[in-house]
Amino acid sequence: MNTIAQRHPSAAVSAGTTYRAAVIPGADRPVEIRSFPIIAAGPGEVIMRTLLSEVCGTDVHIQNGHLDGVPYPIIPGHFSVGVVDEANGDVRAVDGRPVRKGDVITFLDVHETCHKCWECQVAKTPWPRTDTCSSGG
Questions:
Q1: Has residue 126 been placed in a domain?
Q2: Are 6 and 39 in contact (CB under 8 A)?
Q3: Which domain holds residue 36?
Q4: pTM for this prediction
Q5: Going by fewer Cβ within 10 Å, which terminus of the chain is more open, N or C?
Q6: CA of 38: how far to CAs of 58, 59, 81, 120, 122, in Å?
Q7: Does the residue 47 lie in any domain?
Q8: What tens digit of pLDDT does each residue of 9-47 get?
Q9: How far apart are the first and last CA of the chain?
Q10: Dist CA 13 CA 50 (whole Å)
Q11: Phi, psi of 23 (to 5 degrees)
């Protein structure tokens, strides 16, 4: 299952309800506002209510169809700040502190990681870059 809500759960409020998000339905198509069901946080995951999300140059390139392999429809805004509405299990920040309901956190979803190289497994950099992640990010 790879639904749009699972790829970008940052606009959530609480499981069992819905959230609204701006969606890029395809290359060179106008942005739409859609509603999605909120999926409960899985083990080690959080549901974050987005307070602020930046639309960056990558999002503009996605909307304009300048990037190959984009899984349309897609929710833009991969740099977000929000409040944790639900934390399922032992969720920790990159510095090791526990993440709890009510915490203000940031969500950086830039690239998938390979989950194999040193940078992804040990250093756990915020996002893989072609100069660090052996998979190229």
A1: no
A2: yes
A3: 4-110
A4: 0.62
A5: N
A6: 25, 23, 18, 28, 31
A7: yes
A8: 444 455 568 888 889 999 999 999 999 888 888 898 888
A9: 22
A10: 8
A11: -130, 135
Amino acid at 113: T
**Contact indicator for 135, 117 with CB cutoff of 8 Å:** yes
Give the closest residue to 64 by CA, choosing from 49, 135, 55: 55
pLDDT tens by residue, 89-116:
999 887 888 999 999 988 765 555 566 6
In a domain, 87, yes or no: yes
Token pair for residue 53?
């999300």
- In-domain check, residue 64: yes
Q: What per-residue confidence (pLDDT) applies to 69?
A: 82
Q: At which residue do the structure tokens 């909120």 appear?
A: 38
Count of the separate structural domains present in the chain: 1
Residue with tokens 């992640």: 133
Instruction: Write b or e for each residue in 44-53: b if 16 or more Cβ atoms lie within 10 A of its Cβ, otherwise e.
Output: ebbbbbbeeb
Instruction: Dig out the tokens for 82 from the structure.
Output: 């929000």
Q: Where are the strands (E) in the chain, listed by range?
A: 18-23, 32-37, 46-54, 79-87, 104-108
